[in-house]
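User: structure tokens for this one?
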Amino acid sequence: MALTDTFVRQVKHNCDTASNKHADGQGMYLLVSAAGKYWRFDYRFNGKRKTAALGKYPEVSLAKARQRRLEMRELLAEGIDPSADKREKMRDSKEKERQTFNAIAREWLEKTKAQRAETTQIKVNDWLTRNLFPYIGTMPISQIKPRDVLLALERMEARGAIESAHRVKQLCGQVFRYAVAVGLAERDVTADLRGALAAIPRTHYAAITEPIEVAKLLRAIHGYKGHPYATAALKLSPLFFVRPGELRSAEWQEIDFAASEWRIPGSKMKMKNDHVVPLATQAIAILKSLHAMTGHGKYVFPSIRTEDRCMSENTVNACLRSMGFGKEVMTAHGFRAMARTILDEVLEERVDLIEHQLAHAVKDANGRAYNRTAHLPARRTMMQRWADYLDSLRLGNS
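Assistant:
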């Protein structure tokens, strides 16, 4: 006798009954256990008795279970084993899932993470997750067209993130080239997007470059009473004049007190070349004081919330704002322009030494890029002279 919706809904597991199988006919039955109710289908294939699962009630209703039974009987009529067919479809489904942009991008991220700083890895993952995965993430990467990528990038442009849109386009291209390498795509479709995005607007970071105003800034920094990590970062920003991201992601293993050097690996640098920052005596004093607080961990400037991450990218700028220096007056990046201007125009240091210390691309007469130790003794002297000059400004001795 065929089952009814009412019976299926009300029937319960009976511990005193030898069988809790309730037949619906044509090989299908409801198996009731203490854990739940399960649809099953018994059949014979090549002379062997087999059982296929049709799903669990109530997720799979009686009508749906009967539909699945019909589909399996049709497969049997065609000489196909329903269980083998189901396994094959599951394999196909998993393979298709592995070929989506989302899956390939995450695979590429994992394979290449050793090439990036931890903070950069987090940022790249966030860019992809927020800006590409919602729009092309579930698409098979081999079927994605240039227009699909462009539509996602145009959403970024619409909210004013033009520079980030260009960065995400580059990341997308790297994912596609990885897919080509592993045989899951024919080509990098982002190559067709050349010129399709709005040009990146030129950014000029506000900076204080007049010595009298620099003196006021330095006195404000040394009088700042914020968190000790932030205070140390503020004091070191003018001494190092590295990019803000390079400063906040500094690791103790990169600091060599014996050699008075901070050696930044190329993976953290914009130009992808290793970089050496000679440490003036003033910088060493600040770092040693900070080492007593954070030296047990990885980062020189750990996050206040967790030592597993470095300081937020907004910390130094937020400190400047709290001291009354608006974004139109001074920025964390502005310490580079400050050093470049005063070292050249006031202290009359060699321009090539300044450019080396700014980690700009500097080449010799034959067009070859200098290595990280180029002119290091001269740069060491320049950095100490710079630190002494900043002290003289702050103390009003110049």
